[in-house]
Specification:
Elements: H1 2-17, E1 27-31, E2 34-38, H2 45-61, H3 66-78, H4 81-84, E3 97-101, H5 106-115, H6 117-122, E4 135-139, H7 144-148, E5 200-208, E6 211-214, E7 218-222, E8 228-235, H8 236-248, H9 255-262, E9 271-278, H10 283-296
Parallel strand pairs: 3-4
Antiparallel strand pairs: 1-2, 5-8, 5-9, 6-7
């Protein structure tokens, strides 16, 4: 909200101070409340004092403290124009920055670092690093606004898994790259994110694409007993290869292998997969996402996900 208030304030100030004066600046530029303008007309001291008084009155009416107004006028009056227009070369700064999230408690930390700087200088192993005291800086901590909003302009969002296309990858043949997908036995439309076989820290879905036979002869719906939601911190292709190994070894103690080895007409060629999510900040967050997909896709009541 602060930029909006600043823009409204400056628009009103411009109307009062510029529109009411007969002479206009040669160029006038403003970004929110930062102004740059060229004034070719000069200004008699009487006119200058008059406008300063008007400006002081305006700020006082808006509850600005008088000492801040006077200090601003003093700073603007002390420096001659030639000095303000003189280029100032940047001074190299070798101080090591220590950046903290802003908190009233960090003020005490700043004072402690300044007072105990001599201890750093007395340590021969690090004294060369600290020719000057460390530079303490405080950044704005996360807020509800920064957590829920982004300053980036969103472009076209990529949807759908992709094959990593690595020559020796054994997962590309099994991964589904559709932009929209409805898992067997559900009415849920899944729009997979742009992930590939080599992505780590994922939640994934394994399912069976074989069509069951109606009365033992006619193809019916796709098998809905093969849905399995899992998660892994490793790259997905490593985890998928583990599932393949249990099927090839017919290790029926594992849910996935039990389905593909125990059901008639099923084989590893009917196994398919989709990546549902990635980039989780913690194990707990990944497990929560897995549980959400388990309930959403009802794998907790299917034979495979039980």
């Amino acid at each position: 909200m602060a930029p909006s208030y600043a823009i409204i304030f400056m628009a009103d100030l411009e109307q009062r101070m510029l529109a009411g004066y007969p002479l206009k600046p040669l160029h006038y530029f403003r970004y929110i409340d930062d102004i740059f303008f060229l004034w070719p007309h000069g200004l008699p001291s009487s006119e200058y004092d008059k406008h300063i008084c008007n400006l002081v009155g305006y700020f006082l009416n808006n509850n600005y403290p008088l000492f801040i107004i006077k200090e601003g006028i003093r700073k603007a009056s002390v420096y001659p124009r030639d000095k303000l227009l003189t280029y100032k070369p940047k001074v190299e700064n070798s101080r090591i920055p220590l950046v903290f999230d802003y908190s009233p408690k960090t003020e005490r930390l700043h004072k402690t670092i300044r007072s105990d700087y001599s201890i750093l200088k007395s340590d021969s192993s690090i004294s060369e690093l600290f020719n000057d005291p460390p530079l303490t800086a405080r950044r704005q901590p996360p807020s509800l606004k920064t957590l829920h909003l982004s300053s980036r302009l969103l472009g076209a969002r990529n949807i759908g898994n992709a094959k990593c296309s690595k020559p020796r990858c054994q997962v590309c043949h099994f991964i589904i790259t559709d932009k929209e997908f409805t898992p067997p036995g559900t009415k849920c439309i899944v729009r997979p994110p742009p992930l590939d076989c080599d992505t780590p820290n994922v939640v994934y879905l394994l399912f069976c694409n074989i069509r069951e036979l109606l009365f033992g002869q006619l193809p019916s719906n796709i098998c809905d007993k093969g849905n399995y939601v899992g998660q892994t911190s490793n790259k997905f292709r490593f985890r998928f290869n583990n599932h393949k190994k249990t099927i090839q070894d017919k290790s029926v103690n594992f849910h996935v292998a039990k389905h593909f080895c125990g059901e008639p007409n099923h084989s590893i060629s009917n196994l398919k997969c989709i990546l549902l999510g990635s980039n989780y900040q913690s194990v707990n967050e990944r497990l929560k996402s897995e549980s959400k997909w388990v309930v959403k896709l009802s794998t907790h009541i299917s034979l495979l996900g039980a």
